[in-house]
Amino acid sequence: MQVLVSVIVIVSACSIARAQNYVIDQGTSDALTRYLHLNELPMVTAQFSTSPGGSKQLILTGFVATQFGRNDAERIAIGYLNDPSVNMVDQILLDPHVEDMRPPAGSAAAAPQSPNNPDQLWNKTMQGIYKNGGQTPASNGPMLP
């Protein structure tokens, strides 16, 4: 049930951003998402957009294991954009089980893997959410890349 509520909150917040006529900058969004993945945040995505009036907004979504991870995602994103005028909307959810997905230090699995590894982690987590009763959000626009 908590997962369903979380998904509803994310969809609602994304709807608010669209209601203000923000236009998504897909290139910046994709580049920042890749940068977050390279900085050990494989389950965090970024959506950067601007309004016709010039306002800038960054929506961070996904999952991290700790509050430190959430703060780190914000810090990395702000540093990447290097623009203090960006309005940050942090929708990252804390889930301690995300840490269970990390391979043990020193194991062969801890070595760098294919570039698709963050996507594989994301898909595995989303499959677990759906398996445990979460529902696919309504397709009224892009929620996550």
Short account of what is shown:
The chain has 145 residues and is an alpha+beta fold. The protein has helices at residues 2-19, 26-38, 67-81, 117-131; strands at residues 23-24, 44-50, 56-64, 87-94. The longest helix has 18 residues, at 2-19.
Tally of helical segments: 4
Instruction: List the uncertain runs.
Output: 138-142
- Spatial strand order of the main sheet: 1-2-3-4
Strand content: 15-25%
Mean pLDDT level: 76
Give your account of this protein's structure.
There is one protein chain. The chain is α+β, with helices and mostly antiparallel strands and 145 residues long. The chain is 42% helix and 18% strand. Strands 1-2-3-4 form a four-stranded mixed beta sheet, sandwiched between helices. A hairpin with a 5-residue loop joins strand 2 (44-50) and strand 3.
